[in-house]
Write a structure and sequence with these properties.
Strand content: under 5%
Distance between the termini: 44 Å
Shape: globular
Structural class: mainly alpha
Radius of gyration: 16 Å
Number of domains: 1
Oligomer: single chain
Order of helices and strands: HHHH
Largest sheet: none
Number of strands: 0
Helix content: 55-70%
Number of helices: 4
């Protein structure tokens, strides 16, 4: 069965360029939390409206996924890991850090 909730292929899979990871790197913490919360609300609000129990279940699982991701993000923020990841991503995306001579 094709994965529809945890790092689905159509969102880049579980790579450094997965959409949610790119947004985490580019957005401010406040914007990113709003993104996660907005998606959680979106999926919960539309659950059951696409037809079928499987779709409804997937929507609730997606809603929970975004809430869990937000919670994990906040924990990383407290530990100081999010800013470091943001810098690492930007360095990869732009070909190196400020000390890179290439």
């Amino acid at each position: 069965m094709k994965e529809t909730v945890n790092h689905p292929e159509h969102y880049g899979g579980d790579t450094v360029y997965e959409v949610i990871k790119v947004l985490e790197a580019w957005l401010t913490p406040e914007q990113f939390v709003g993104f996660c919360r907005g998606n959680a609300i979106k999926y919960a609000a539309r659950a059951g409206k696409k037809g079928g129990a499987v779709n409804e279940s997937d929507d609730f699982r997606k809603s929970q996924w975004y809430l869990t991701y937000e919670d994990d993000y906040r924990k990383r923020m407290v530990q100081g890991l999010t800013g470091e990841r943001r810098v690492q991503f930007k360095e990869k995306a732009h070909g190196g850090g400020p000390d890179d001579e290439g």
